[in-house]
Design goal:
Elements: E1 3-10, H1 17-33, E2 38-40, H2 52-58, H3 66-78, E3 81-92, E4 95-103, E5 109-114, E6 120-122, E7 128-130, E8 143-145, E9 150-153, H4 162-171, E10 176-178, H5 185-203, E11 206-209, E12 213-215, E13 221-223, E14 227-229, E15 235-238, E16 244-251, H6 253-261, H7 264-267
Parallel strand pairs: 1-2, 2-3, 9-10, 10-11
Antiparallel strand pairs: 1-16, 3-4, 4-5, 6-7, 8-9, 11-14, 12-13, 14-15
Length: about 280
């Protein structure tokens, strides 16, 4: 089996975990009714909240998380692979993990991934983010085998670190690269499409990227445009603005075709790293 139907859920998450669960569940059910075998939700599926006190008042550990419990039950009921793009999961008194879950059709957790690269950025116009203030970074890349091929996991800001995707595709053998996200409006307009297409082209892999979209209750605006990109870099599905779905039929045979045409993964060579600072050349005699 190399063919299946994938769906990306695009939402505008609020401060209410209960409201977010209801909104996501409705779209997951819509995707399954449309024939999707694999469904992905965005980063921050359970909550979008910048205020630390309100955030940690709403969070629980993994065993008690209501979003995870509900979506595990939905996956089992519908018999689908459900990839929760990420949940904020409490791991210490004032620290959370930004954690993705891949749920198998029996409702079991097939894989977990904690976001490695944290978004600590000051944008033009005064927009500022310090994800590391509240999030504990992950330290390991993760892949999981689906019935059709191998899925490599990443989250949002990870997109800007191509070495992670190279490792997932070349060393770990991923056919599909996933980048559920909550890209800012500003950075999304500038870089979202080109970076996702680049990761697909560089690795000859499918890229699935479910996204948050619109103006959120906490005042943040996210870019949306959930994308499915084929291994040749072609966009085959894109969500409209606001909550909705992007759905496409996937043929993993295109992975071997793209890698055969441009065998860059086979051509990778080890090399010595350049010095950390520029070396001044001696003047010629």
């Amino acid at each position: 089996m190399t063919q299946f139907r994938a769906a990306l859920v695009q939402t505008t998450a609020s401060r209410s975990v209960e409201a977010n669960i209801a909104a996501v569940e409705a779209l997951v059910r819509e995707a399954a009714a449309a024939g999707a075998h694999y469904v992905q939700t965005p980063e921050n599926t359970n909550i979008m909240e910048h205020n630390g006190d309100r955030l940690f008042a709403a969070l629980t550990d993994e065993a008690s998380d209501p979003t995870l419990a509900r979506l595990r039950a939905v996956a089992a009921e519908l018999g689908i692979w459900l990839h929760i793009g990420s949940l904020a999961i409490k791991v210490a008194e004032a620290k959370a993990a930004n954690r993705a879950f891949v749920i198998a059709p029996d409702g079991s957790v097939a894989a977990r991934y904690d976001k490695i690269h944290l978004f600590d950025v000051d944008l033009v116009g005064g927009e500022s983010y310090r994800e590391s203030n509240r999030i504990r970074p992950g330290a390991e890349s993760v892949t999981v085998d689906l019935p059709w091929g191998r899925l490599g996991l990443a989250i949002c800001y990870d997109l800007r670190f191509p070495q992670l995707f190279r490792a997932l595709a070349r060393e770990a053998g991923a056919d599909i690269l996933s980048v559920p996200a909550a890209f800012t409006q500003q950075t999304g307009e500038a870089h979202w499409h080109v970076l996702l297409r680049a990761r697909a082209i560089e690795n000859g892999a499918w890229v699935f990227a479910a996204a948050q979209s619109g103006l959120h209750e906490n005042g943040r605006s996210t870019y949306g445009h959930s994308l499915i990109v084929d291994p040749w870099g072609r966009i085959v599905a894109e969500a409209a603005d606001g909550p909705g779905l992007a759905i496409a039929d996937i043929d993993l045979g295109l992975v071997a075709e793209a890698r055969g045409r441009i065998p860059a993964l086979r051509h990778d060579r080890p090399f010595a790293a350049a010095p950390a600072s520029p070396v001044e050349l001696e003047a010629a005699p």
